[in-house]
Amino acid sequence: MNYPGLATQSPRPVLTYQAKTVQIVVVGAGGTGSWLVGHLARLVWDFNRTWAQVHGEEPRHASLLIVDHDAVEEGNIRARQNFCPAEIGYPKAQLLVNRLAFAFGLSEHEISAHVGQFSSSLLARRWNELTILIGCVDNAKARQEMADCLAKQNPYGTRENEYPSLLWWIDSGNSLHAGQVLCGNVATADELCGALAGPLCLRLPSPSLVHPELLVPLPDEEMSASARLSCKDLVLAGEPAMQQSRTINNHMAGLVYGYVEMLMYGGLTTFATYTDNSTFVTRSLETTPEGLSLALGLPVPFFTTPGTLVESREGSDDKDSDEEDEA
Predict the structure, then answer these.
(1) Which parts of the chain are beta strand (E)?
(2) One GO molecular function term (predicted)?
(3) What is the DSSP secondary structure assignment for residue 37, as one 8-state letter?
(4) Is the pLDDT of residue 6 over 90?
């Protein structure tokens, strides 16, 4: 859906590297993450068992890694996370893996858990593997770690390469009733120069490029863990005005899943989706020059003309050099 008054061209279809191996990593198994991983486990099961039958090609393989350092508490269940009373005290990530591996018959090579904090070392750095990193966290520190992964991405991904990055970052965040999903694979604006000059879109801005404030800690994040209000606390808050929507996390999980499925199978034509459960309004920015211009504040020709930014900077550098010579 377009924003009112924003005239756009037809969106460019997003094309990812069609790797034989796809690694999906979910960071955060709380409000949104605990509901999302069930969809992704079904996706992995289907992808690994039907690709060769449908497409008549050699099999492709997908895997799912769930990362979370927390254990289930009673408050998580009351906050409508995807856990039950019998699971209190056990690690969230491992519980979900055990549950889904049993339900879908997934092997340890298809689904696994890391009970601990996320770090870039958890990502496989194989040159021919597509990685989809999904953030379902509520703090800037974790997002900073994911942003660093994109900034230090696979050295095989360059602007000259057909596929500039083998790592895609999808970030999900929400408040009481509203939220956003952002999807991108490049960490700097320079890399988007001429990104939509052709019929396909291979490069999209990192979530932290579209919303830099995601990497800035909120005042309450500086507090101790015991004093800070988490998404769980918002659900359990006594004041009705402070209580989180009963359906926002399920809604966010569905939106994130849609992005993952379209990245893997094709069909994605948006890079930012904003939703409000109190009004049932969901809007997206499409992969058009106008959409990227609105998101990043750069002129439309920058995204359609290769070399625009590089040339302008080189001209600026030459001018500065001439002024220095005259001085």
Answers:
(1) 21-27, 61-67, 111-114, 129-135, 167-174, 178-184, 270-276, 281-286
(2) ubiquitin-like modifier activating enzyme activity
(3) H
(4) no
